[in-house]
């Protein structure tokens, strides 16, 4: 992994602002690439095929599972989500840092398969703030919102299994923190043992 | 440690540019404080008491050792160097990140006493570059330079015991890297378990 890019999991409850943080971070750091997930859920307004998701029918998604083309997949609120394997390995091989914005179960599976992964959990400043954000998005009905709030509680219980925690009380700062984490991880001794050999001492 | 500042070891061979990196890093990050070491060596031109070092006679230095007032001390090239205990613990308690610019043996002792310490090893881009820098400083005679070069080789063999490696091929970048390491370390789950309780989930 030392000469390749970093594989990064960005996790956290729905509505916490993972996507916004990532967009800001990518604006400042051109070495980040998003892993584009496959999903069976319907596109939201403005979402594009192969940019936000690979939108799949349930039948096609199940074919990908059968052919072992997904690093992980999960069923969540009635829809399937998964991470296409070749896509992320190509990007890592090209030296990009690949960020997976992913649910808790998927994250756990990625960590098992790629122990060198860097895992970051995003928290809202308070739980009430998260509730406000989820209600304010206005793209889901109240039943879905309540489901997500309950789920958020469960997800946050797993936050202590991640490497890093970012509290999203300021998008700009949160994006800078994410970029710092990537920078620092590239400086760890574990990822740089080859340098001690190459440098010619 | 979670609510206090970070204790940071900055290590690396003499002449690699630790002091210059630190000055740059402190210019951008007002939360860093240097640990001021005690030493029996003579002040170099421009060095100030209690800023660069606490300059001590050998007799006074030995008294500090007897009274257990030093976190660590070492004899190096005929002089004593040590880290006053109360000084760093006061700064950490005030929330500052305290950086110790320190030799390899001292670093090992600090790591034993403070396992939560963040350790950073600074490498020159090449060994030849280090030789040029040591010769170019012009403050030491050639015998001292040769001693330091031999010592540098021995020190660099320990680089893989540190948490992070910074290659000093550009002072500005090296300073930014150091600041990123401090930022990222403050986001690790180990240093933030209290947040998961305080945030009220």
UniProtKB/TrEMBL annotation, chains A, B:
Q: Which Gene3D superfamilies match?
A: Guanylate Kinase phosphate binding domain, P-loop containing nucleotide triphosphate hydrolases
Domain Guanylate kinase-like stretches? 5-183
Q: Which CDD domains does this chain map to?
A: GMPK
GO molecular function terms attached to this record: ATP binding; GMP kinase activity
Q: Which GO terms describe its cellular component?
A: cytosol
Record HAMAP family: Guanylate_kinase
Q: What is this protein called?
A: Guanylate kinase
Annotated source species: Anaerobacterium chartisolvens
Report the gene name.
gmk
């Amino acid at each position: 992994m030392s000469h390749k890019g970093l594989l990064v999991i960005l996790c956290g409850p729905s509505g916490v602002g993972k996507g916004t943080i990532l967009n800001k971070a990518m604006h400042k750091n051109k070495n980040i690439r998003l892993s584009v997930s496959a999903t069976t859920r319907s596109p939201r307004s403005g979402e594009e095929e192969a940019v936000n998701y690979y939108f799949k029918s349930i039948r096609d998604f199940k074919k990908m599972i059968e052919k072992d083309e997904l690093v992980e997949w999960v069923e969540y609120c009635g829809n399937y989500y998964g991470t296409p394997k070749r896509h992320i390995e190509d990007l890592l091989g090209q030296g990009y840092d690949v960020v997976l914005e992913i649910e808790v179960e998927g994250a756990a599976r990625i960590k098992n398969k790629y122990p060198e992964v860097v895992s970051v959990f995003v928290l809202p400043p308070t739980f009430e703030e998260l509730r406000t954000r989820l209600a304010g998005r206005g793209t889901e009905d109240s039943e879905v919102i309540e489901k997500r709030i309950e789920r958020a509680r469960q997800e946050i219980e797993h936050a202590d299994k991640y490497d890093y925690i970012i509290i999203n009380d300021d998008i700009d700062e949160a994006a800078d923190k994410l970029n710092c984490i990537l920078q620092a991880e590239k400086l760890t001794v574990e990822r740089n043992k080859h340098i001690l050999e190459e440098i010619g001492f």
